[in-house]
């Protein structure tokens, strides 16, 4: 039976990535060596890094004023690394609290300096993202999460401010067109839309690198890491290759504008069914903030929750249980998930509705 993988991450990747990655484990590009045994100082890996950077720059139209890095570790590491680099003792940073990951970023920043939370959605269980907040002009940066993976909320507009904007795009990077010039820094774990776990994509405006605190260890220093072009120490060679393969796949599919159209179509289809089906309710009611990547919904009767998970699994639909011990469902429709898989989930929801009558 074909499985339809709606996992929140690590998540489904394109078949193209699996096939090429499997080939590379045996013999990378005719070199006679597995990529797993290939030096990060080899010309083979230099080619991988160069192509990954060039493709990312092309796909997201990243200007030369920004450095592009592929670093070991996930976004949680950068929750700490960003303030370590940029938040000096006598400065403050502004943060928007829109969910668990945003709150984790806030907590890590508090180790390094003053943190001003401009708004929080916590009191209403992060069902929507607060808007209309003020960002203090003297903040060293403003940090927010563009897509809240657990709650299924998203901010499509970049908040307007004169201070550098830093955005965690872990769960929506490469899913829709963005204007990179609106950001001081973008970062993302790759294991949702861009590869195998172990790597973060970092896009940082070079002038911010001039303000990095010099009194921090080199291994965490973005300026040092940028000067060494992601090769300060041994990077996760194989995981970076899976990111390159994702970028190649995305380009073949027509780039960001083509994938964005597909993501709109896929998410509309599922939201329509959630809103129509008598057994389910969408978690996010504000339609402008409904995520196209992580679609969250409940069974109106909690006792039907496990029944639906089992019913779906029997039909090959997996990964729709909400995060950790949160109740309800989350269907993640990342770039590699096909329209056919979404249609299958919709059909399973309809069948379940008939079944329960
Ligand atoms: N930010 C967001 C938006 C996420 O969804 C996640 C993980 N699901 C993280 C940060 C943390 O990523 P990691 O576990 O790779 O550190």
TrEMBL record:
| EC id | 2.6.1.52
Instruction: State if Cytoplasm is listed as a keyword.
Output: yes
Positions that bind pyridoxal 5'-phosphate = 75-76, 101, 149, 168, 191, 233-234
Q: Which EC class does it fall in?
A: transferase
What are the residue boundaries of the Aminotransferase class V domain, all occurrences included?
5-343
Subunit text: Homodimer.
Q: Which NCBIfam families match?
A: PRK05355.1
Q: What is this protein called?
A: Phosphoserine aminotransferase
Which organism is this protein's natural source?
Niabella pedocola
Gene designation per UniProt: serC
